[in-house]
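Dear all,

This email documents one entry for the complex benchmark we are building for the journal club exercise. For each entry we list the sequence lines for every component of the assembly. Then comes the predicted three-dimensional structure of the complex as a token string, followed by one or two observations. Please use this as the template for your own entries, and keep the labels exactly as they appear.
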Amino acid sequence: MSSSYGENIELTIFGQSHSSGIGMTLQGVPAGKEIDMEELAKFLARRAPGRNEYSTPRKEPDEPEFLSGIFNGKTCGTPITAIIRNKDRRSEDYSALKDLPRPGHADYTANIKYFGAQDYRGGGHFSGRLTAALCVAGGICKQLLAKEGIEVHARISSIGPIRDRGEFVESLEDKVFPVCDDEMGEKMREYIAERRAEGDSVGGTVECVILGAPAGLGDPIFDGMENRIANAVFGIPAVKGIEFGIGFAAADLCGSENNDGMYMEDGEIRTVTNHAGGILGGITNGMPVTFKVAFKPTPSITKAQRSVNLTTKEDEGLMIAGRHDPCIVPRAVPCVEAAAAIAVYDAFLARKREL
Amino acid sequence: MSSSYGENIELTIFGQSHSSGIGMTLQGVPAGKEIDMEELAKFLARRAPGRNEYSTPRKEPDEPEFLSGIFNGKTCGTPITAIIRNKDRRSEDYSALKDLPRPGHADYTANIKYFGAQDYRGGGHFSGRLTAALCVAGGICKQLLAKEGIEVHARISSIGPIRDRGEFVESLEDKVFPVCDDEMGEKMREYIAERRAEGDSVGGTVECVILGAPAGLGDPIFDGMENRIANAVFGIPAVKGIEFGIGFAAADLCGSENNDGMYMEDGEIRTVTNHAGGILGGITNGMPVTFKVAFKPTPSITKAQRSVNLTTKEDEGLMIAGRHDPCIVPRAVPCVEAAAAIAVYDAFLARKREL
Amino acid sequence: MSSSYGENIELTIFGQSHSSGIGMTLQGVPAGKEIDMEELAKFLARRAPGRNEYSTPRKEPDEPEFLSGIFNGKTCGTPITAIIRNKDRRSEDYSALKDLPRPGHADYTANIKYFGAQDYRGGGHFSGRLTAALCVAGGICKQLLAKEGIEVHARISSIGPIRDRGEFVESLEDKVFPVCDDEMGEKMREYIAERRAEGDSVGGTVECVILGAPAGLGDPIFDGMENRIANAVFGIPAVKGIEFGIGFAAADLCGSENNDGMYMEDGEIRTVTNHAGGILGGITNGMPVTFKVAFKPTPSITKAQRSVNLTTKEDEGLMIAGRHDPCIVPRAVPCVEAAAAIAVYDAFLARKREL
Amino acid sequence: MSSSYGENIELTIFGQSHSSGIGMTLQGVPAGKEIDMEELAKFLARRAPGRNEYSTPRKEPDEPEFLSGIFNGKTCGTPITAIIRNKDRRSEDYSALKDLPRPGHADYTANIKYFGAQDYRGGGHFSGRLTAALCVAGGICKQLLAKEGIEVHARISSIGPIRDRGEFVESLEDKVFPVCDDEMGEKMREYIAERRAEGDSVGGTVECVILGAPAGLGDPIFDGMENRIANAVFGIPAVKGIEFGIGFAAADLCGSENNDGMYMEDGEIRTVTNHAGGILGGITNGMPVTFKVAFKPTPSITKAQRSVNLTTKEDEGLMIAGRHDPCIVPRAVPCVEAAAAIAVYDAFLARKREL
């Protein structure tokens, strides 16, 4: 079902940007697992808006209230539901947009799909705000994976044309702007600030690495780790591409260049390179799982744009007011971690059936 | 389930490269739909091996036998099952590989996953041969979509470092080497021949365009067209990346460059550019749906490689004999069409519930 | 997934009897459908506790708050979530039962399943209270079906050994005690009162009839209407059996007695009898769909019972205090309607894909 | 999907009574499990037609050919597919029935559902013949469960009005007519013979008991053992009812009579009685799981019946020729075991995720 993900766990995300609340239900988590609420709050804070110069000033505590599924600090085995209230709603900002879809947004497609009955306020169910619910589930899955020795980390790998440098091998979660090379990070921030001053926005890429995943996760054909992760990651608004290992660059290479030779080290089978991103035939091989995600620039810009009035069916110019991130990539970093953690935890549980 | 795809149709793929047969079951196709078996055979021929210099000489008629689901030339509403016998099996070629996994293949990961009980002959269930079953299902879905005015076409967009030129807007299915610019196609073929002579292999990319899809297909969050198509396309072995519209290139742009402005033409809402690849918020906007897929180079090369003996747990060199495509990209073109057609037809049926 | 139901809609039920709230998410309802909140409230009132002498005095307004999915009085196409707070919680009543499972309850099985981490208060997720969430979803589906001319009605067909009389052909929803023959209803009430006075409880059966369902709903083998309805109805606690049409009585008959002869009337194919309960091969034939459900007596009784202390692993007598229905059958009537409506609406949407 | 079952395994059944073959695909069985083909053949023989006086003389070897999934006598982890050819087809027997639906059969409902494109020969996909595929899957699951100490047995508990006597506690699979009391069995056979001589048919019930199932199998609400088993069992044609433990009889009792008191024995928690059929809250409690299934009499009888001509839309009498079981209950016994084994094995794998 559309707003649900998973076979062994099932995550369901509900809510609209300006409805009375959003939230998530996560089923299938085994009973008796401790959930550290403080750690979860810290994880959610990484996604929260209003923290710095390049994110929307809309301030929401975004504190989830757990209605069920956690008892005495532990999962009790039955569905975990958390809700987040939508407090800081300025719906009137959006009423002008009801008939004038924003280019690059789901406004027009939602209107067609739902025959005009869609909740058009602030993107409705398509709003980036829904990723708060994704992060509640993802934050829980990250903790569950950590108990199994599996870590999920992401970084900003590019902002617009500016690339981060260095190899990404450990958590950068303590950085407000998580890049390996802070000098490049400074350039990225300047780039965002410049575009923002022009009323424009910026895209970028996020790289994710999963450490400690045992060989044998994932399944053939349609449940390979690539399918599973892609399926979850495309659930984040603005994602337009994903590649595993060296991805598109592999298409330019010869087999002798791309194949990852194998060798023994410390009793484990390793590969000399990791072009495959830790996945062969959809199944992990014990090397780090790596992938990169492309985010388009935030479609909400204050520059003039061409739109069409859905009532009059005539061309009409559009100037977007309201509060918007000039670049959602920094806030997308924990979202990518969340999506990856959900996908990997689902595969992890799938694997337990076979053991 | 791992080897199944879809919510409104369900495709299940079964078989191993060297088992007595492979096949597919396709459920959920409404009754009374005519299936043109000759057209299907033509479609399957585009994927068949042994047709030219850059594909494996293994010759298989690959003619599906339909056991059920089609009655008097029409779908009868119940599961459609087709099987393809594996006739030209030289399993002995592979017995040497039982303990020596081929780099870049699923040999090692399958061994771990299935505790040594995997069918190691020719890649087993992970073999590219299984795409014959995918193409039977995809060929049927292509026909079903065509009845609704929706066309699915793919081309080779690059081979190694060589890019096709020109805009891809119509079917190239009559070409043995489906590129827009035949001059570039000639260079690609030469490139493949050179690498092959060296015992090496070549990767490439395939571009797909879906024409005639009405606005409103796809669903929010985890059932967007990107999720659906990615989920199906990563079911093709050797795929390592997918991007929609301009994909990764969008990450480098500003919003004012990337947003597709809207206008009216002939009573329809169109966009000036189509950077979004016809999908916004996971839902089609009526513009062509476009995406590009990265294929890694065929891992089977005759050059010496590093492997590890799974029994002795010692490093061991590997020289692969046997018959292998130096480049699977040409044969992957109909596979991408098949995967896309399956995904789009599933979304098409989902949409009917809402109307 | 365990607490979810459906393929074309998906209902997810969450919460525990004594957690901060319970609720439901219903996905897949097409956009633009009006939901009459007053009618829904009336439906929910039929299930609500504390209305009469044979139900628990625990009083809960049970008013659902809709967080999402309904906009301007209509479904907006995205997930509908409603929550109900658990206000009147006397958890201390249950703490004594933590180690002493109640016979006939899920206390012991939940303890084993969840390794002692289960929410033991008031039955947790297994509580009959969760049917409030089922009824929110079912009440919505009933309204959606009514728009399509399909009605779902249930009655009490027996209480303990006392059977209702008469043929059940129309809604009895206006009756507090919904039986065809009020004289029998009076005897049933007396029977409940007597058992209650003894500290005992009573079982019964509920009959359901679905009118106006077109021929062609349901699917072969595992998605027949029997499978679908049974799957939903066994989601109601205390259900131990279900039969369609004349059900178990058919097993005693000969084919010549049981077969429903066919004839034409008013341009429609009808059957002389309806022993099949309107379903053949899992698919509706246009006659009323009928089925009957067996409810065991409420396991919570004040009489002394044998239990086992889970900590000491020794036999121990049990006396249950607290507030309990002596007979849940009257309140189960709308629950059966809800389960049936959910199942039929799911099948109804499935059918739309084929048209 | 309609002809598929399961979440942790997935069984897909395909084929029509008179198509070129039928079969099944079973996914999700862990790798390395030995399958005893001789034992499977013996199990299938219990369902095979043509063995005695009360079953159809249509003779089919019904020997499955395994196309995939089993390698060197063991499951190899990927989909197991077996096909059975339809050899002894006398389709002409059925052509007369194309327009004249048989009362009690799916002929009419299939015609409506599939808009006249259904495979009407011999019941098509709705034929009892499809249970051969169910039994291939079920026979495999029975073996897999036996390795875990779980046994699944069924018996004939009644034929028409004649009930078996005695308690059912062990396998009767060596009996051609599996009842506890052979004297009653003899009466049942006579009863079948008499009805058959009259051109009539007979219904009956089958009781199933599952021994050795550990406490903790099954999940709350919609994935309880009752839901799971009912969902599988209603996949057998002619089933019209199911009850767990004492089922409908419980509805007549008081709680003090029905509740199963608990006690310790040999370090295990047991219940004094087993009215609940080993299931509380949908979850096994370690006692034997018991249920009973109602089969309607075979609808194909040679007595004159009322039907409607689908072309002329006029009433028309019907006399069925051809070969039919006067009573399918004896052959249904292994089918019930198969359905139960599939359901329990799926729940068994689900449980492994939680451990």
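Observations: The mean pLDDT of chain A is 94. The CA atoms of residues 215 and 330 of chain A lie 31 Å apart.
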